[in-house]
Amino acid sequence: MSHKILKGKNGIIFGALDNSSIAWKTAEAVHKSGGNFILTNAPVAIRMGSINELAKQTNSRVISADATNIDDISMVVLEAQNTFGAKIDFVLHSIGMSVNVRKGKKYTELNYDWLTKGWDVSAVSFHKLLQVLYKNDAMKQWGSIVALSYIASQRVFPNYNDMADNKAYLESIARSFGYFFGKEKKVRVNTISQSPTITTAGKGVEGLKTFLNYAEKMSPLGNASAEDCANYIISLFSDYTKKVSLQNLYHDGGFSNVGISQEIIKMFGD
Ligand SMILES: NC(=O)c1ccc[n+]([C@@H]2O[C@H](COP(=O)([O-])OP(=O)(O)OC[C@H]3O[C@@H](n4cnc5c(N)ncnc54)[C@H](O)[C@@H]3O)[C@@H](O)[C@H]2O)c1
């Protein structure tokens, strides 16, 4: 797909770590679609990952920022506007991390310091980002802001642990802040609820491969890949979706509306 539907649009992409990241695939797709962007990630991710390679490939700048730090976010937003000489058309928040998941702490035994850290990184950082963009009037009218979620926010997936609560909070922020952003600035705010995807964050969830195989068998269209997700994000950044806002949009091959599939019936058949 190489329609230049983002030609002349400028944005910020948070969360490209390596070439499996959803944000990485999105950056490549935005570049192909004619958009310009600043890439940003936490200092440690810039050191450990390969974001500079992506920057070279897409002719973009990398700015180091911790998404839980308001000063860092403000600096990225200001730098983006200075670089483009214009307000911002699109923003992708593709950030998630749970210390409890990383350390294998069960949901019934959560460590609350770790919970608070993961909540700040995975959910509150989205509020902070929206607040900085809003207060600085940094978004262009009809701009679009997208964050990434997972269906464990709405249904139980026991191994997803406290990330399920973080995603529920994230989706709520998109609706609540999206109201004010829409009313006062004519800017869209949405979350995309993506299929399980093999990425660094995804691999941290115990049993991801099983989630993935199960979802593949349940979804009439099969799982959505990171590339598919990137293309969906392009449509949400484009002018073709100007009146879509305050939504949690399932991008999962139909998984979320299936009770049971014929493949699963066969597996458990009598
Ligand atoms: N992989 C999946 O199965 C899946 C499914 C649905 C939704 N998602 C969501 O997609 C988003 C992107 O994740 P991914 O799967 O591409 O994995 P990923 O590991 O490539 O991306 C996660 C990113 O979060 C960044 N991050 C962590 N702490 C940060 C901080 N303090 N400041 C700034 N950045 C920070 C990491 O550096 C990394 O780039 C996440 O919100 C994730 O929850 C993933």
Chain-wise SSE layout:
Blueprint lengths: L9 E5 L7 H11 L3 E6 L1 H6 L2 H8 L2 E4 L5 H15 L3 E6 L5 H4 L9 H24 L3 E11 L12 H24 L2 E7 L5 H4 L4 H11 L7 H12 L10 E4 L10 H6 L3
Parallel strand pairs: 1-2, 1-4, 2-3, 4-5, 5-6, 6-7
Helix pairs in contact: 1-3, 1-10, 4-6, 6-7
The structure holds nicotinamide-adenine-dinucleotide.
Based on DSSP secondary structure assignment, what is the total number of beta strands? 7
Strand order of the largest sheet: 3-2-1-4-5-6-7
Q: What characteristic shape results from the CA principal axes?
A: globular
Q: Runs with pLDDT <50, length 5+?
A: none
Distance between the termini: 45 Å
The H-and-E topology, N to C, reads as EHEHHEHEHHEHEHHHEH
In helices, the fraction of residues equals 40-55%
Largest beta-sheet characterization: 7 strands, parallel
Number of helices: 11
The overall number of domains is: 1
What can you tell me about this protein's structure?
- By secondary structure, this protein is of the alpha/beta class.
- It has one domain: 3-Layer(aba) Sandwich (Rossmann fold).
- The chain is 46% helix and 16% strand.
- The chain contains 11 helices and 7 strands.
- The protein has a 7-stranded parallel beta sheet with strand order 3-2-1-4-5-6-7, with helices on both faces.
- Strand 1, helix 1 (22-32) and strand 2 (36-41) form a beta-alpha-beta unit.
- Helix 1 runs parallel beside helix 3 (51-58).
- The mean pLDDT is 96.
- Residues 15, 17, 21-23, 41-42, 45, 66-68, 94-97, 121, 148-150, 194, 196-197, 199-202 line the site of nicotinamide-adenine-dinucleotide (NAD).
